[in-house]
Amino acid sequence: MKHILILFIVLTSCKSSLKNESENNSFKEIHNESILIDTHNDILMKALDKGVMFDQDLTGKTHSDLDRWKKGGLDVQIFSVFSDGGVKNPYSIANSQMDILDELVLRNSNKIIKVANVKEILKAVKEKKIAAMFGVEGGHMIEDDLLKLEALYKRGARYLSLTHNTAPSWATSAEDETTNPNLLQKGLTDFGIQVVKKMNELGMMIDISHSGDQTFWDVIKITNKPIIASHSSVYTLVANRRNLKDDQIKAIAKNGGVIMVNFHPGFIDDSFDGKERDFLEKYAIEGDSLIKSGMDQWNTIDYLYKKYATESEIMRPPLSKLIDHIEYIVKLVGVDYVGIGSDFDGINLTPLQLDDVTNYPIITKVLVEKGYSIEDLAKILGSNFLRVLEANELKK
Q1: Residue 335 dihedral angles phi and psi, to the nearest 5°
Q2: CATH number at residue 155
């Protein structure tokens, strides 16, 4: 019943109504009249590390900026709050990134607004403003302190990814569980169980992207709220440890959660890793030199891709690969359990036709051509996530 109510609100209250059959409307009209939500964008990391201000035109520098989000028809952005697992004072870094968004909102209050719940999202959409929330990527950022978890929630964090690749002390990541044969324990510790229960109490969504299999199943057993995968794709199509296996997808659907499909080429195209490996081997001497000079691995790869753009362009997967992951989830468990978690500005390369955030409408175009109804498109583009967010919210 809650899902039906959310969908009804989305279709009737926020934007002008459309006819019930998508073929009677252009894809642009359908896209613009739907609520588009992207649950994972890493622009705050770039803003802090490189000093970019994303209320300026960053075309060619980033995947995202404020005006380009509007051009792409984006209504709600969940801003990833992230630092590598090995850094000192990750909680302080989290707050510094949150400060960046808060300051940007103050400068651009006519374009973007921070929101705390579904009601405020719908109000922002009516006012034609981008609704902004935080998602904290990595449990290490709470520094083993439930009070810091609560503080991040109060600042606007509406999900916590329990792990990143480097996991906290209380949960194991997909990387841990698949590459570390010396793990003494897998899954959630007693403190990890406390974190999950505290998140349920707060109304903070549990994000299992990056989580190891045992952590995932521990969460499914413990949580009393629907969970999300904020930026993950399908393991059956691409056997990457970051992707979700069929039994996990089914478990998320049974839990009432939602899987937000990631655009990372290595997660959607099973040929990409080999292509990338060959590319990096070709330029290994140059890459090693950059790393020795102080550049980190992510920025080194980004530099090489941009320098040798003709070669990297060939490596980009077709858009159809991304659509395959959306459709796989739909066919496996239904259209109610899939959405968009792009990972823009956290990935070096994107699928073809998805150069930046202005290209979101192309996804809608392809799904319209495949015969998806307006109701189903509304679910994929945003209302599935709104349903899960609403189900996690505390009732007063």
Answers
A1: -75, -10
A2: 3.20.20.140
CA distance 346 to 338: 20
Q: Is the dihedral angle over the CA atoms 6, 223, 208, 327 positive or is it negative?
A: negative
**CA trace torsion 113, 119, 124, 127 (10° rounding):** -150
Same domain as 300, residue 210 = no
Q: Are residues 167 and 309 both part of a single domain? A: no
- Does the predicted model carry a pTM greater than 0.90? yes
Distance CA 295, CA 44 (A): 19
Q: What angle do CA 178, 180, 184 make, to 5 degrees?
A: 110
Q: In this predicted structure, what is the pLDDT of residue 12? A: 47
- Residue 283 above 90 pLDDT? yes
**Is the pLDDT reported for residue 25 higher than 80?**
no
pLDDT band at 13 (very low <50, low <70, confident <90, very high): very low
Q: What is the phi/psi pair of residue 273, to 5°? A: -60, -40
Residue 86 lies in a domain: yes
> Per-residue pLDDT for 396 more than 80?
no
Domain end (from 249, 281, 316):
316
> Which helix (H) or strand (E) is 302 found in, with range?
helix 297-307
Contacts of 78 (CB under 8 A, 6+ apart): 37, 38, 39, 40, 41, 133, 134, 135, 158, 159, 230
Kind and range of the H or E element at 66?
helix 66-71
pLDDT confidence of residue 189: 97
Q: Are residues 122 and 163 in the same domain?
A: yes
pLDDT of residue 7: 52
In 3D space, the residue among 99, 218, 189 whose CA is nearest the CA of residue 152 turns out to be 99
**Same domain, residue pair 162 and 277:** no
Q: Is the pLDDT of residue 6 over 60?
A: no
Same domain, 73 and 211: yes
Same domain, 292 and 324: no
Where is pLDDT greater, at 16 or 87? 87
